[in-house]
Specification:
This protein has about 350 residues and is α/β, with parallel strands linked by helices. The chain has three domains: about 45 residues, no CATH class; about 130 residues, Rossmann fold (3-Layer(aba) Sandwich); about 130 residues, Response regulator (Rossmann fold, 3-Layer(aba) Sandwich). Helices cover about 45% and strands about 15% of the residues. It contains twelve helices and eleven strands. Strand 8, helix 11 and strand 9 form a beta-alpha-beta unit.
Length: about 350
Amino acid sequence: MRENRPTLEDVARLAGVSLGSASRSLSVPALVKAETLEKVQRAVKQLCYVRNGAAQALASRRTRTIAAIYPTLDNPIFAVSIQSLQKTLWTLGYQLLVASYDYQPEHESGVLRAILERGVDALVLVGTDHADAVYELARQYRLPYVLSWSFDPTKSKNCVGFSYYDAAYKMASLVVEYGHTEIALCSGIASGNERVRERIMGTRSALFAAGLKLPQEWIIEQPFTFEGGRLAVRQIAGYANMPSVLICGTDIHAVGAMAECRDLSLKVPDDLSITGSDDIELASLVQPALTTVQVPTWDIGVRAAKRIVNLINGEDTNEEPPLQTTLIVRESLKRLRS
C-alpha cells in the first residue's frame, strides 16, 4: 500500500507557521521573512514535499511558468540572459521554460504551439521581428509578452533591450576615428532578424556621416557561429582590395574570423583589424584581445522578468528608455592615424 504523500498542511504544521505563510514561502519566497522561509524550507526537505502543480494551476488558472523562446541556446550572451531571467523569476515565484528555434524563424510559431500545450502564463521573446502567427497565438491565448534584446520605441511598454542601430553606429564611428576607410561588415542573416537589419543601417549611417560608403558586396551575411566568422574572412581575403577592418555582428563571429586569419597567415590587427559585439568573456581572453561593444546582457534578463510579471498581474508598466551599450577598446583594432 502506497504511503500518503505529505501535504502543504503537513509542511505548515512541522514548520510551526500558518498555512498561508507556508504557501507564500513556496510561491513568492522574496516576500517572506527569512526566519519563516528557513523553517518552511527545512520542513519541505524533511518531509520530501513536492507541490501538486497541476492542482494548483487548475485552482488558480495559473501555471506560474513563463516561457522564453530564444533564436539559439548556443551563444554565451543568451546563456547569461537566461540565467538572470531565471534567477529573477524564481524570486518572484515563477519558473522558466526555455525553448529555441535555432535561427529558423519559420519554426518559431511551431515551438510556441508546443509550449502552449503545456500551459504557460506569459511569454518572453527575443527581438521584435516575429511571424504574424506568433503574435496571433499570443493574442488568442491572451498571453502577456515581453520583447527582449531589441528596443522598438513604438512598442516600448513591451520592450526591454537596447538599440542595435546605436550600438553599430558607435562601433563604425570608432573604426572611422581610427583612420579606416575600407570597411567590411559580417552582419548575420538579415531575413527575419530586425537586429541584423538595424546593425547594417547603423553601420551605413555612421560611414555616410563620415563621407564613406559600405558597398553591398562588403556586407557579408553569415550565421552567428565561429564558422560564419571564418567564412567572412575567406570571402574578403579573395577581394582584389581587401578591407582594412572587419566589423563583426557578434564576438562569436569575430573569434572565428581571428582563427581564420591565423590559418591564412594574416596578422590581426596589422593585416586586418577585427571588432565584435557583446563582450562575452572570451573577448578579453583571445590574442589580440577583442575590441567590442559591451551590451547589458544581465540587465536584460532581470528587467524582462520584472516586466513580464507586472504584465501578468495587470500592473501598469512605465515606459523605459533603451538600455545603454559601451564601446570596449582593445588590441584587435589598429589605429591608422592619430
